Here is the input.
Amino acid sequence: MNVKIPQSAGGWSLSGPPQRIEPKAIFDYMDGAGELYLGYRFKFLEVYQYHNSSQQEILVELYWMETSDDAWGLLSGDWGGDVIDVGPVPGDAAKARIHALYGAGLLRIWSGNLNARVLTYQETDASKEAVLAIGKAIYAGRPEPATPRLIRALPSTIGPNFTLRADRVVYLRSHLVLNSVYFLSSENLLDLGPNCELAVGAYRGGAGTDSTKQVRVLLARYPDETSARAALTHFQRVYLPAESHSAESLAVVSIEDGWTGYSRSGRGLALVFEAPDETSARLFIEAAKQALDSVEVLHD
Here is the structure.
């Protein structure tokens, strides 16, 4: 898998070969979080342990995912922590990407189809230095894919007043993950699954807008046009008032918490939530539709 696991880092030494955990055993390894990894098409996990002379532990978890998009999605679930430089990144465009975050003894890394976690339970200057050294060794020589297409398609600004929040951008495939990011329904309202992908962005208004509210944009891609059409029908039936149901592929609707818009184009579905008025809802949904169309062009 092209990962270098150092035998030692600072005063910590590798305790032995890794423990390998397959998807069917993920719930035996962790309590409650297994669904998150399965939702990102987790293939298997390698667990390494380091100890120093005082028996203090550093835990290394290498989550091997089906694609780089899945591994990036795991990182996107929490942008908290300090951005860490874990190694040289080729190309000017790649320098803007976040590859690693560190906070409270935990280093999280995205590198190709790998999502790595390096954790010290007793954070000291020495243990932090060892954690970062292990992380840099893991990252060294790894491939440098782009971020998911749907994430790159999210407009950085919409209209004159709304700006995308970089710390609220999430990529996912599972409705369980979506509900933790932006709750729509206890059921799988958008028919999400392993063969779907969804980008979620939050837009904050500028001067003249209510800065406490954020407009949400969801860009979804399905395996085919039939699946996208069925997902839109499901969304309309459950989420929107009956009198607003329409066969149209683009519409905006006033509901209890603001204006909602939707647009379906081919295998893509765009949704807007909590727009402050009809004008901005239409502005958002048109921008989201253009973003989806751009993804289809790139895909083709």
The helical segments are 26-29, 34-39, 68-76, 125-139, 149-153, 175-181, 225-239, 278-299. The domain at 149-299 is CATH 3.30.450 (Beta-Lactamase). The chain has a mean pLDDT of 92. The first helix runs from residue 26 to 29.
